[in-house]
Amino acid sequence: MEHLTLATDLYELTMMYGYFKAGRADKSAVFDMFYRENPCQGGYAIAAGLEQAIEYISNLQFSDEDLRYLRSLKFFDAEFLDYLKGLRFTGDVWAIPEGTVVFPYEPLVRVQAPLAQAQLLETALLSIINHQTLIATKASRVAHAAEGQPVMEFGLRRAQGPDSGLYGARAAIIGGCAATSNVLAGQRFGVPVAGTHAHSWIMSFPSELEAFRAYARLYPQNCVLLVDTYDALRSGIPNAITVAREMRAAGHELAGIRFDSGDLAYLSKKARQMLDEAGFPQVKIVASGDLDELLIRDLRAQGAKIDSWGVGTRLIVSADCPSLGGVYKLCAEEDGGGMVPKIKVTENPAKITNPGIKKVVRLVDKRNGMALADLIMLEHETIDPSQPLTIFDPVNTWKRKTLTNYEVHELLQPVFRHGERVYQGPDSVLAIQAYAQKSLSQFWPEYRRLIHPQTYIVDLSYELWNLKRKLIEEFHPSGNGTAGAEGGVPPAGVPLQGGAPS
Asked: How much is the pTM?
């Protein structure tokens, strides 16, 4: 990754300057990065982008050129610029590994570092992880709709610039795509690349048949012909069958045909019939052209005879949900030698933050390996899996559930300690993809449904819930119900470790 230290919002630097002048720059602080709503109105997200975030943090430093530019802005004095010259990241970072299924309000990244350093990370971390998590999630939904049929990511030409196309392709592979058309992504990340030819190839020859023959001579082992340049049923498929016969006579087989437009359900059924009757049942049918998970789902429901899918624009820009909306919030700060929890209180309950230094645990059923619930807890808290665990909804606290026979998996993993990388994740993007598939397999189909999925349980431990309630009441002492439907009264019964709806 290129040098990205100045890939930040100006206000990060002006705040750093303010911390520096106020003598607060080196006070320890903790920030959480999380998002508030699942993308695409879905039931989950797939964490992605951690490797690029690690590269950014590892390379964080202000070059002489950076400092000359900042000096030219005349916002900062020489003392602060000298401080920036020697700045390196010296803090700790925890993160949820790439490919993990994640949910709203769970810290995807937790940063504990000197305040100025932690503040500086905000914009770049959000940019990197918001984007790749969004595209990985969209790809996961598309792959889910394809039900095991290969999906190729074809979106580079419609991405919001080359970097978006490059890292979007990476994220799409993590989310479940089998290949990408992006050659740079193939080189950079060691992932499969795929592609055939465009309509311009056909149009550049005197006839469609000559174009098909020329392409078959070039790629006899993997020839896929685009059949809808002129008339798919009257010209494209008949000409493809002619070339398929010629290839067979020469000892080769036509690999497939592709549609990029038209009624894909009708055309694919007719094509399958024509190919089978001609003696080519092995020829695959590929579809592309403004596809997304909902259209793929509907085409399959209509019995479309499509074997693989090329998905471009609607995947690479996540057309129905073009941003994840992740945020980066202060949750604790050093004061008097100890760490003091911090909270943002607002009239919008969804934007009230969870205070304190936190971790995320996933509770998994020992009997079948399926996820039962996630809990956001204070870092020092522990759960004894040999004991029943009662969890409750942090808003509607009368909703309770008691878990038994479960395992506890901590999701946040150490990434940096004292500025040094300690995390060694999967050694390839394809390994992250495999991990993502394993993570998804822990969740029942109801949570992965494309429309109106069941809401997965993610809640607060009782200690965190109570801390949040007390801090809210410091700002709203009259009590207005923001802490819970029961006015801050926890459920009666067995001792509580967490909170979740049943």
From this structure: 0.94
